[in-house]
Structure formats: C-alpha cells, structure tokens
C-alpha cells in the first residue's frame, strides 16, 4: 500500500506541476536579490509566472521521477504554495481527498482517453481544457 501511495503522490505532484492550474501567483520578495541584471529589493511585490518557471527543464527534466525531484532546489516547486510555511491551509486535505478519489476510481475501473482527442488548455485564474475531455471506463 505504501508504494502505491508514494507513486500516486508523484503522479498528483507531476500533474499539478505540468497542468499549471494557476498560471501566476504573487508575493513579496523576502530578501534583496538580482534577476537578469535587475536589482529586486526586499519587500518588493513580485508576480511569479508559474506557467514559465514550472516548465524550466533545468529544474523539471522530463520525464519527472523521484530521482529528478531529489536533485531540485527545495523551493523550486511546492504544491499549494511558495515555500516552507507559506502554503494553503487546505494543502493536506486537498491531497488526501484527491488521493482517496483517484484510488477509489482506479481500483474499480481502467481509464482511457478517447483516441485522437487533443487537450488544449485555456489559461486564466484557473486553467481548464478548452473543450470537454472524453474518457472511457472499463470495469476491472
């Protein structure tokens, strides 16, 4: 059971990273820094383009696996937040709820996307597919 849980967690983390559910976020800079020759003083509001940074192959090589994630800087990706304690209070609840739901469905059904379907994202406050996504379920 533990191995299934570990792999399911990796699938959920990878899905959240690749799907770019929220394409941007903002926070105040914690320390003085420099980016591309521009000085960013402490307490400056900064908008993070998650859709760009989460696709950086330097930190997120594809395919992503447990070994790749171990070599990443510790704050390069955090589900439901930025780093450390700055996370959504519902982080653990959402993860557990998603795990239970996925496990319940996958235990009873084989899931397949309809052949030839192309999923195109529409970016906004919450990213979603442009058109409906169709799947087929086959009882196990």
TrEMBL record:
InterPro entries membership: CYP450_20A1-like, Cyt_P450, Cyt_P450_sf
Family: Belongs to the cytochrome P450 family.
GO molecular function annotation: heme binding; iron ion binding; monooxygenase activity; oxidoreductase activity, acting on paired donors, with incorporation or reduction of molecular oxygen
Protein name, entry field: Cytochrome P450 20A1
Signal peptide: none
SUPFAM superfamilies: Cytochrome P450
GO cellular component entries: membrane
One family name in Pfam for this protein: p450
Organism whose genome encodes this protein: Magallana gigas
């Amino acid at each position: 059971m533990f191995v299934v849980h570990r792999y399911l967690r990796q699938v959920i983390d990878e899905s959240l990273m690749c799907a770019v559910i929220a394409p941007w976020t903002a926070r105040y800079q914690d320390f003085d820094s420099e980016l591309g020759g521009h000085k960013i003083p402490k307490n400056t509001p900064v908008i993070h383009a998650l859709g760009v940074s989460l696709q950086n192959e330097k930190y997120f090589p594809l395919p992503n696996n447990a070994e790749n994630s171990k070599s990443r800087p510790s704050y390069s990706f955090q589900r439901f937040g930025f780093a450390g304690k700055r996370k959504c209070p519902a982080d653990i609840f959402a993860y557990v709820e998603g795990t239970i739901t996925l496990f319940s469905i996958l235990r009873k059904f084989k899931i397949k996307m309809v052949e030839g379907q192309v999923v195109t994202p529409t970016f906004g406050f919450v990213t979603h597919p442009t058109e409906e996504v169709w799947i087929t379920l086959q009882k196990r």
